[in-house]
From TrEMBL, chain A:
Swiss-Prot/TrEMBL keywords: Cell membrane, Electron transport, Heme, Iron, Membrane, Metal-binding, Transmembrane, Transmembrane helix, Transport
Transmembrane helix listed as a keyword: yes
GO terms of molecular function: electron transfer activity; heme binding; metal ion binding; oxidoreductase activity, acting on diphenols and related substances as donors, oxygen as acceptor
Protein name: Cytochrome ubiquinol oxidase subunit I
Keyword ATP-binding appears in the UniProt entry: no
Cellular compartment(s): Cell membrane
Residues in the signal sequence: none
From TrEMBL, chain B:
InterPro entries: Cyt-d_oxidase_su2
Protein name per UniProt: Cytochrome d ubiquinol oxidase subunit II
Cellular component per GO, a single term: plasma membrane
Family: Belongs to the cytochrome ubiquinol oxidase subunit 2 family.
Native organism taxonomy: Bacteria, Pseudomonadati, Bacteroidota, Bacteroidia, Marinilabiliales
GO MF assignments: electron transfer activity; oxidoreductase activity, acting on diphenols and related substances as donors, oxygen as acceptor
Keywords: Cell membrane, Membrane, Transmembrane, Transmembrane helix
Biological process terms in GO annotation: aerobic electron transport chain
Length: 433, 336
């Protein structure tokens, strides 16, 4: 593995690790908040128990998310110093807001976790809401900074230097909104299904009220998110079609520019022969999805010099996987609503609980795939159309070793967190038996 | 505008040293006392733990937004010690939380404790080494030179190591002083007072070692210090605070002790800054990185300042509320 590949892999591993903890850290506080709110309204102690059990999970995920986020804020400069030197002053604004929002979240979480006895009941509840709001805001700010890399704006690039910097225009770049809603909804969907899946597993073993209530709260969020996600995804794809046509073409392994472009489902891209094998093709559908017109022309990869193509197979497979998983989760959401309003007995049936268990990791797999789609799909650029990733690499040799080290550390941490949570869950059960 | 943001950066760094430092020091103190301090440390820092560490993120953000070449140059040349700090931060942060939240079982907790303690020591030491590397001026941006010259030599020297040891003692000292206010038992208070006094003596010794090693490493720290009136005043005040601390330790005044120790640390940090200013990073074979030549354009600094002011207006009152809720309690009830 060469230096450049190692640096990209290290960034990928660090982000891929962090994104899971960050999503849970921004969504779970909302579940906690609802559980506590329900407890205060109904006086049913099960809700309090649930809020407290969840808050332990949140504390663990938040702490690991905080340290891995801290690491990222350094890694950007340790791996891509040239990029940060130019980009820092331009896209720094959302990062500064993110710092503020994260700070508020950290303070509020401290109050929430340790303030059960110290704080007034109402105050405690509101603080729970502040944790949730600041968590979501910090997520949106970070995504806005990433969106700037896809749709750079707020500066003029003159002779390899950024001039006339406008940090506000950079923050509200053309990709920020579509990326922000897509990511936020994804976080709610993934976390909700993950939490519901864990409690479905426990409910199947032991029909306790707490698990049923947990599934209901988690799915109340996740099901809305999962139904909204295809709409959000459609808007995001239209935006990509406009701003980064090469990326869209890579999603679909769309090599030739054509009108009535087909939507490609599945298949194995053959980059050498500019073809895709074994795929299902729906004529005109890609034109419609990208531009809202079945006859519209969709630019193919052939329009771009080959050295500016993103790695097609990875982008293609990740995109297909993301869409497939998103569709499956939407289906589960529809079943959940049907069960809630019409066929109430569905929600305690074995097949439904088993479906939920299967869905436990799927939202996060979709998030990882989507993240690969955004990041790998932008290659070879680090700032789209302005700066290439390889030109911003650190001059320090031996990045392979830092990559191995960081990967080993995160792998270890993944094992420990999983083990820790499984023990927590076991104890939760023991307390009831 | 750049100066205003720099000031906020220095204050954030200071708060990280004082608050985050007390918390790093907690781990070191546990190690020094062979676990006796464990309960005290956990109780004192758990609620404020996360918030204390965000100061570092604020410092990093101000750096890459407002002074991007400082950020890029330091993270390129001091890649190795910074990586060690980061690995330490990962282990420390996770182990602390795991220890707190794992269900009660003796064995894993002992392992978490050991990781927390040793990584506190390790992280603090390399934080000092990194700072030493920034101050010393052996950083070179001529990347044609060999690996050793660019990536090792700037931090592998006596001065950086003395800085590392100084940081370890300073953080342990802060933790010891901060813990005294949390203690109810007179025996424990006496024990922590004794540790604090020993740490003060060690700090004075290693502090002079820092100056001495700077001389050995060919740095003019001492003469720079003599020529900077502001830093003379700071160091004199920091030194004058020592006997005061001693008296307060004998009288067991918890909150006043914290205040004086905080003041003393402030003086050390501002003394260092006065020596250094307006240079941010000394470069061996090129122009030093200063506030002026590294500052982002006005527009960026302006908006950064606005965000920071709004941020501070939100964060400081919340922080005070957080501390008020969990600290400075006179009655003997458990906080949570």
């Amino acid at each position: 593995m060469d230096e450049f590949m190692a640096a990209r892999m290290q960034m990928g591993v660090s982000l891929g690790f962090h994104i899971v903890f960050a999503c849970i850290g921004m969504v779970m506080p909302w579940f906690m908040f609802v559980a506590e709110w329900k407890w205060q309204r109904t006086n049913n102690p099960v809700y309090l128990e649930l809020a407290k059990a969840w808050s332990k999970g949140v504390a663990i995920f938040f702490a690991v998310g905080a340290v891995s986020g801290t690491v990222l804020s350094f890694e950007l400069g340790m791996l891509w110093p040239t990029f940060m030197k130019h980009a820092g002053p331009i896209f720094g604004m959302p990062f500064s807001w993110e710092g503020t929002a994260f700070f508020v979240e950290a303070i509020a979480l401290g109050l929430f976790l340790y303030g059960w006895k110290r704080l007034n009941k109402k105050v405690h509840l509101y603080i729970g809401m502040i944790v949730g709001i600041s968590g979501v805001l910090s997520g949106i700010f970070v995504v806005s900074a990433n969106a700037w890399m896809n749709a750079p704006s707020g500066f003029d690039w003159i002779n390899g230097q950024a001039e006339n910097i406008d940090p506000v225009a950079a923050m509200f770049n053309k990709a920020w909104f579509s990326q922000a809603h897509h990511m936020t909804i994804a976080a709610f969907s993934a976390t909700g299904f993950a939490v519901a899946g864990v409690h479905a597993f426990l409910y199947l073993r032991n029909k306790l009220e707490i698990h049923y209530k947990a599934i209901t709260i988690a799915l109340a969020f996740a099901s809305v998110a999962a139904v909204l996600q295809p709409i959000s995804g459609d808007l995001a794809a239209k935006n990509v079609a406009k701003l980064q046509p090469a990326k869209l073409a890579a999603f679909e392994s769309h090599f030739e520019t054509q009108e009535k472009a087909p939507l490609v489902i599945g298949g194995i891209p053959d980059v050498e022969n500019k073809d895709i094998k074994y795929a299902i093709k729906i004529p005109g559908m890609l034109s419609f999805l990208a531009h809202g017109d079945f006859n519209a022309e969709v630019k193919g990869l052939e329009e771009f010099p080959k050295e500016e193509w993103p790695p097609v197979p990875i982008t293609h497979y990740s995109f297909q996987l993301m869409v497939a998983l998103g569709s499956f989760l939407m289906l589960l959401a529809v079943i959940f609503w049907a069960g809630t309003f019409k066929w109430k007995n569905w929600l305690t049936k074995k097949w439904w609980l088993k479906l939920l268990i299967i869905a436990t990791p799927l939202g996060f797999v979709a998030i990882e795939a989507g993240w690969i789609v955004t990041e790998v799909g932008r290659q070879p650029w680090i700032i789209y159309g302005i700066m290439k990733t390889k030109d911003s690499l650190t001059p320090m040799p031996g990045i392979q070793y830092t990559f191995y080290t960081i990967s080993a550390v995160y792998l270890l941490l993944t094992f420990v967190v999983t083990w820790l949570l499984s023990r927590q869950i076991k104890v939760l059960h023991k307390n009831y038996l | 505008m750049a100066e205003a943001n720099l000031l906020i950066l220095v204050v954030s760094l200071l708060l990280y040293v004082v608050l985050g430092g007390a918390d790093f020091g907690g781990g070191i103190l546990e190690l020094l006392t062979k676990g006796k301090a464990s309960g005290v440390v956990s109780r004192a820092i758990a609620p404020v733990w996360e918030a204390n560490h965000v100061w570092l993120i604020l410092v990093v953000v101000i750096l890459f937004v407002g002074f991007p070449s400082v950020y890029s140059t330091v993270l390129t040349t001091l890649h190795i010690p910074v990586l060690l700090v980061l690995i330490g931060i990962i282990f420390r942060g996770s182990a602390f939380t795991f220890r707190h939240y794992d269900i009660d079982e003796v064995r894993p907790k002992a392992i978490y404790s050991a990781i927390f303690q040793y990584s506190s020591l390790f992280t603090t030491f390399f934080l000092g080494v990194t700072l030493g590397g920034i101050i010393l001026g052996e950083i070179s941006t001529n990347y044609q030179l060999g690996f050793y010259q660019i990536y090792i030599h700037p931090w592998l020297n006596w001065f950086s190591f003395a800085m590392g040891i100084f940081m370890v003692l300073l953080f342990a000292f802060l933790a010891a002083i901060f813990s005294i206010g949390e203690l109810k038992d007179d025996k424990q208070v006496a024990y922590f007072s004794r540790i604090s006094k020993r740490l003060i003596i060690a700090l004075v010794l290693v502090g002079s070692l820092v100056f001495l090693s700077a001389q050995i490493s060919g740095h003019s720290l001492f003469s720079d210090f003599l020529h900077s009136p502001a830093s003379n005043v700071s160091i004199v005040l920091a030194t004058l605070a020592l006997p005061l601390l001693w008296v307060l330790l004998n009288k067991n005044k918890g909150n006043l002790l914290r205040l004086v120790a905080g003041f003393q640390t402030t003086m050390i940090v501002s003394g260092w800054f006065a020596i250094q200013s307006p240079i941010l990073v000394k470069i061996k074979d090129d122009v030093d990185i200063t506030v002026q030549n590294s500052s982002a354009p006005y527009q960026t600094q302006f908006y950064l300042f606005i965000v920071l002011v709004v941020g501070v207006l939100i964060i400081l009152p919340s922080m005070v509320y957080l501390y008020k809720t969990f600290h400075f309690e006179k009655n003997g009830t458990e906080p949570y």
